[in-house]
Amino acid sequence: MTTTWPYLDVHQSRTHEPTPYEYKLAATLEEVFTKEGHELSDVVRGLNSRQVHAPDGAPWTEESFRAEMNRLGACPR
């Protein structure tokens, strides 16, 4: 990281080290974005087809994905 403005600290909003669940979700999202698309429906379908479930163990829905991204701080509120 540089100390001159503008700079980007890629972990500037991180409050803790990622959990194994968060690492798995991130890796799977990267794969889905690469192979299936960026639309929310593509993401939900891709996660569910790879058996990467929501934190409660249920299949993802668009609503549960949005809620989880908000919880993780990945989306503006």
Structure, explained:
By secondary structure, the chain is mostly helical. It has three helices and no strands. The mean pLDDT is about 85.
Keywords:
mainly alpha, globular, 77 residues, 47% helix
Kindly state the number of beta strands: 0
Share of helix, binned:
40-55%
Main sheet properties: none
Mean pLDDT: 87
Give the overall shape, derived from the CA principal axes. Answer: globular
* Model regions low in confidence, pLDDT < 50 over at least 5 residues: none
Rg computed from alpha carbons, rounded to a whole number of angstroms: 14 Å
Q: Given the structure, what is the number of helices? A: 3
**Class computed from helices, strands and strand pairing:** mainly alpha
- Distance between termini? 27 Å
Percent of residues in β-strands: under 5%
Order of helices and strands: HHH
Question: What secondary-structure arrangement, pairings included, does this model have?
Answer:
Layout: H1 20-35, H2 40-49, H3 62-71
Helix pairs in contact: 1-2
Brief summary of the model shown:
With 77 residues, the chain is mostly helical. Helix content is 47%, strand content 0%.
